[in-house]
Amino acid sequence: MSQHRNTVTVSIKLADHPEIRQCLEDKSYRIMVFCAGDTHGTQEISFPHQSELKVNGDEVKANLRGLKKKPGSTRPVDITSHLRLLPNYTNNVDFIYALTTKVYYLAIYLCKVVRTEDLVARIKTGQKISKATTLRELVEKSKDTEIETTSQVMSLKCPLSYMRLELPLQEQGPQWICPICSRSVTFERLAVDEYVQDILAKTPRDLEQVTIEPSGEWSIPGPQNSTPRKSTSASFDIIDDLEISVPDRAVVSKSSATPNRSIAPSLGTPSMVDSRESTAPRPSGGTSTKRPAPAVIDLTLSSDDEDSAPPPPKRQQLNFGSVADYRHF
After folding, report:
1. What is the 3-state secondary structure (H, E, C) of the chain?
2. Structure pTM?
3. Which GO terms describe its biological process (predicted)?
4. Where in the chain are the domains?
5. Under 8 Å CB-to-CB from 302, ≥6 apart: which residues?
6. What is the C-alpha to C-alpha distance for residues 148 and 247, in angstroms, rounded to an integer?
7. Can you identify the CATH homologous superfamily of domain 2-113?
């Protein structure tokens, strides 16, 4: 592996490059390392797959590959903090690479970092897409006989931050892939969309979307129908008509069960009871609103009690707060 490693060394001395002194006076000036595969036209930053960077013998921790499967996403390497900017000190920048037959070009530049606020100010005073231009494009698309155009809903939120738009642009900067069109452009091609800017100025800040007609006219969507839908399923008052009780074995006497209706013995609380068999019958006539007495199912019965004597007479349950009529099935 060692015989395939190659090293390129670049020396930087403050006395030879007096403009570097700006890094000491203004922190917005930085010394950065660039690498590309060609020298003609605009090139994407690209380092060899296996490479590393050292300054004065110390390795520079930087991502030289960028994002996976996204060419051009590599950022230049800032080496300002690794340099010793003294008048007569020679800084050695070593670039080490291996296992590549492709030609690369390495360059070191003095760069100035521009604040986001300054970039926004440039965009505001730069190119603009007029409202008339946007309306004309919408009308031309609606006249296409092969494409049927309908109204569409446009969100007033930024697709990246999900906050309300402040300065609508039709493109994104380099390597900031537009979430709508999935394309990237240079900073110089960014332009303000005055059509959307006019909509933002005429709508309240809490409005999230508007409806755009094929003619270019827009409107605020009406309030949605918030009336709850009426349930189509029937409602049954089963809880009030059925009461399950597990009496004490020492108090409750054995009783007979209706033929072909037996309940297996259980010592725990039942998880489910068939309401079709255990629900007490409702009165079929009259207008009385009196609720029938709840039915009690004795879970202590066994299958051996099916041929026993008739059920005992009704008796009062003393360990409940209210008096009720209990029957055994």
Report:
1. CHHHEEEEEEEEECCCCHHHHHHHHCCCEEEEEEEECCCCCCCCCCCCCEEEEEECCEECCCCCCCCCCCCCCCCCEECHHHCCCCCCCEEEEEEEEECCCCCCEEEEEEEECCCHHHHHHHHHCCCEECHHHHHHHHHHHHCCCCCCCCCEEEECECCCCCCECCCCECCCCCCCCCCCCCCCCCHHHCCEEHHHHHHHHCCCCCCCEEEECCCCCEECCCCCCCCCCCCCCCCCCHHHHEEEECCCCCCCCCCCCCCCCCCCCCCCCCCCCCHHHHCCCCCCCCCCCCCCCCEEEECCCCHHHCCCCCCCCCCCCCCCCCCCCCCCC
2. 0.53
3. protein sumoylation
4. 2-113, 117-219, 237-283+290-329
5. 264, 265
6. 74
7. PINIT domain (2.60.120.780)
CATH match of 117-219 with 3.30.505.10: no
Measured distance CA(46)–CA(35) in Å, rounded: 6
Within this chain, domains 2-113 and 117-219 share the same CATH topology: no
Tokens of 278: 């255990």
Question: pLDDT tens track of the chain, all 329 residues?
Answer: 345 789 999 999 999 999 999 999 999 999 999 999 998 888 889 999 999 999 999 999 999 998 888 777 899 999 999 999 998 899 999 999 998 889 999 999 999 999 888 988 998 888 898 999 888 988 888 887 677 677 888 888 877 677 888 877 654 334 555 656 666 667 788 888 899 999 999 999 889 899 998 888 899 987 654 444 443 444 444 444 545 555 554 444 444 444 444 444 444 444 444 444 444 445 444 455 556 666 666 666 555 555 555 665 555 554 444 444 444 43
